[in-house]
Hints:
single chain; alpha+beta; four-stranded mixed β-sheet; three-stranded antiparallel β-sheet; 18 helices; globular
Amino acid sequence: MSQINKLKIFNDPIYGFITIPNALIYDLIQHPYFQRLRRITQMGLSYLVYPGANHTRFHHALGCMHLMQKAVDVLRFKGVSINEEEENALYIAILLHDIGHGPFSHTMEKSIVEEVHHEEISLLFMQQLNLKFEHKLDLAIKIFKGEYHRKFMLQLISSQLDMDRMDYLKRDSFYSGVAEGNVNSERLIQMMNVVDDVLVIEEKGIYSVEKFLMSRRLMYWQAYLHKTSLAAELMLTKVLKRAKELTNKGVVLWCSEPLLFFMKNKITLDTFDATNLGLFAQLDDFDIISALKAWQYNEDYILSSLSRMIIDRDLPKIVLSTEKTTIDDLESLKEKWAQQNNSSLQDANYFIFKGKIKNQAYSKEAEPIRILKKDRSVEDVFESPDQLNLKSLSKSVTKYYICFPKQLEQIKN
């Protein structure tokens, strides 16, 4: 009887060949929970702005694992002790760190599964997989939860300079064509070291850190918070909110069974049991797109209009400003829209609304990026006298938006 060769190689357009290090990693990748990530776009609805941005969470997870392999090699070369069990746990933890994302990534957290963060769902998936794979994920889960005594291992997975951010910036830049986001992940990894079980960057890599943070800031403004991408995501959130409202009133809407379940039921972390997790695992982007294609012909004006906006990419206008929109301006727009459409002010809330977005490349409150100086002392990169640019990158920039149908074009940028 022939055995399956589990030491496979993926050909990645960014890094070249990515190798699967062992049979357990292969089996995790082959599991339906992980294969679902092939059907979840990495950048949500950003492909409506950047047509090439159709890459998936599957791509991203493999890329993160590849970078983790590079990081382990570099740290071992520099004398950092990482045993085989720890190495494998790092690969598993980074591979599965985003497995809890729902359709179109972050949108589900704001509409269907409102009170459960994707990282919490990732942990639930990891715990279920741990049962299936006879507790071989124990250490990976411990590291992922921040309960392992070697602090640098969590920093490699989740920090202000981790494998996750290194891959998504480089990958999203590549697929979107936003060149400003391209980071030198190889240089950053080569500059990594560990002091007292804490991750540090050697001083000669400080300018690569600065470039990394600047790239992150620019990618947020030009891609992740691009106003058209923002408008599309806000519309999708409104669509799902309206569908949920109609469903709870007893209106029968066509959609997949898993999507219908989450529209009918409010699921919290406490009620997210194995059955609910199994239903969540059946959800992907195709459930949402299929529903939108059906709902655009629904007799409910709000649901059909909002669905059609996304399907036809006929998105509302969104105006960004450094100043808040006044309540009077917002209410005035709602009244005019309600008159034009012979509708109520309550219905207008689905089409006209305001909010704010924030961009902060580096947080002084979060775990710092530490620089290892030539005298072997360690300092926060923010404290380096040579890094004046980091002072501005650490400031949170807030912009306010108002979203409204294009018919109400009297508001100008």
